Amino acid sequence: MALSDADVQKQIHHMMAFIEQEANEKAEEIDARAEEEFTIEKGRLVQQNRLKIIEYYERKEKQVELQKKIGASNLLNKSRLEVLKSQENHIKNVLQEAQQKLHILTQNQTMYGKLLEDLICQGLCQLLEPSLIVRCRRVDQPLVEAAILRAQEAYSAISGRTCKLEIDTANWLPAEICGGVEMVTSGNRIKVSNTLEARMDMLAQQMLPEIRTMLFGANPNRKFDN
Asked: Contact at 8 Å (CB) between 144 and 179?
């Protein structure tokens, strides 16, 4: 039996409605899948950027902490250097004050004469030469002449040797030094400086650790004294 036009139109509308429904359902499915994928991708990007932000600020925090440590270390080193500089200046002032007091030693003729004898005898023992030239301040000439005789006797008793000593009257030591002598071999080959300033400088270097301890106390961080 042939379908009428009305039936054909009805079936066409029914088919169109079915296709439209299928299309709508498919579109909704696509939209739902796209929304789900969008949500997943958005979450991934958010998490990825969140980790980047966390990593960035962690790195910044470490840089700030490092800068703080460097700043504190620089400040500590600067403070230590200032303390060391102040200590060195204080030691220098103490040694200068002690050097100024060397003049007091020369005012006691008996004590100073004995000191000259010991300095000359020590120079003899260091050089062990048959003849030497002695240089002194012009004002000390009488004391040095007397000290030479005693020093030669002491030297002979110690070493069994003799040494001819002659005062260099052409080259006096500067009047501004505190005192003492210089002893020179012939031709100025070797010189022993036993002036009071030279002896004090040598003792100051040898006793520097003890001087530091006396002035500033023991340093708990110091492993060696020299």
From this structure: no
Whether residue 32 lies inside any domain: the answer is: no
Assess if residue 137 is contained within a domain.
Answer: yes
Residue 151 placed within a domain: yes
137 in helix, strand or coil? coil
Are 192 and 182 a contacting pair, CB within 8 Å? yes
Domain count for the chain: 1
Q: What does the pLDDT look like over 147-194, one tens digit per residue?
A: 999 999 999 999 999 999 999 999 999 999 989 999 999 888 899 999
Task: For residue 106, count CB atoms less than 10 angstroms from its CB and return exposed for 0-12, middle for 13-18, buried for 19 or more.
Answer: buried
AA letter at 13 = H
CA–CA separation, 166 vs 152, rounded Å?
12
